[in-house]
Structures are given as structure tokens and as C-alpha cells.
Write a structure and sequence with these properties.
The chain is α/β, with parallel strands linked by helices. The protein has two domains: 2-136, Rossmann fold; 143-201, Arc Repressor Mutant, subunit A (Orthogonal Bundle). Helix content is 57%, strand content 9%. It has a five-stranded parallel beta sheet, with helices on both faces. The longest helix has 19 residues, at 123-141. It is elongated, with a radius of gyration of 22 Å. The protein starts with a strand and ends with a helix. The mean pLDDT is 90.
Amino acid sequence: MLFEDNTVLRESINNLIDFSDDFVLLGSFANAIQVEEQVKALKPELILMDIDMPGLTGIEAVKRIRRFDEDVYIIMLTVFEESETVLNAIFAGASGYLLKKHLTDRLITSMHEVLNGGAPMSPSVARLVIANMHTASASKNKYDLTGREKEILTSLSEGNSYKIIAEKYFIGINTVRSHLKNIYKKLHVHSQTEAVAKALNERIL
């Protein structure tokens, strides 16, 4: 299935797929406003999704699809290379991310790639994802939390009490409190709520 609001580009993609021996286009749409009904009715194996569409963005459409279908492959088609847009699409559940300027050369190859378990991305997009992973990794390490401190912080974020944490890791409640004191100091916070919020916001866990 294809969702693309640009008529000329949509027809061009239709033709690329029609000329391919390996794919059948089940539906081609100018917007994703009825995406849930359309996907449920046509049951595609692969969806090509534009990001910037009227009425409902491609990222929101992906989120809606993922509520009822975790298996369908979704490749985002876009002119956007900004890291925030790329990561939002991936976090929403996109399987790949292809810039429109590469469609003629890479679309069919990318469709094969995703069906074979890959995650097709234009080179510049792949670099953005890798850069974000490095940033996230640096963020996780910059507070110098120990393995046990991370375990306790994770357990706190799951809503567990000091008693449950103590039993889970076979340590005393006072030891849990001691670890928390160190966590607060390293994160520069003053409460359990602040610690958990900071850990989640900065992807420390």
C-alpha cells in the first residue's frame, strides 16, 4: 500500500511498483485519514508512508497502525532529514526510512531489503541514527552510575517499593537507601520522583 499526497510522485511510485515483477500494489492513497480501515481491509505485507500529508501525518498514521498490527513493514518516504523527524518515525514503529530523492534508485531494493529482515535507510539517515545512538550512550554513562544503581533506579521507575527492591536484589532496605543517596548525588536531584523523571528523560535507563 502507498500513502503519498503528491499526485505526480504517487503515480511515479505506482509505476515503479507496477514495472516490478515481485510486488502488487493493493491501494494508493493521497492521505492517511482512513488508514486504519484501509490497512485492515487490504491487509498489506508492506506499506510505503509519506510523512508530511494533510489531515494526518505519516508518523501519526504509523502509530495508529501499530496499535493493531505489529507485523506489517512500513517504509517512510520523505524529504525530511532532521534528526527529530527521523527518530520520531522510527520510535513510532517505522521499519525503514527512505529519502524521496533516492526513490528511483533505491525503492524496490529497499522493499526487498525490509521484507528480508533489514531496515533500509538512506545513508544520511543512517548516519543520524548512529549519531543519536552515540549521544544516548554518552548520556547513559555521563553520570557514572554503577550497575546496581541502574538496577535500583530501573526498579523504582517500575513503581517498586524499597522493600520489594531489597528482596529482589537480596540486600537490606538500608542498603537500598544508601544506593539511592548515591544516585541522587550523581544525578543532582533530591527525590525519587526527580531521579526517575531525569533517568527517563535523558534515557539513562
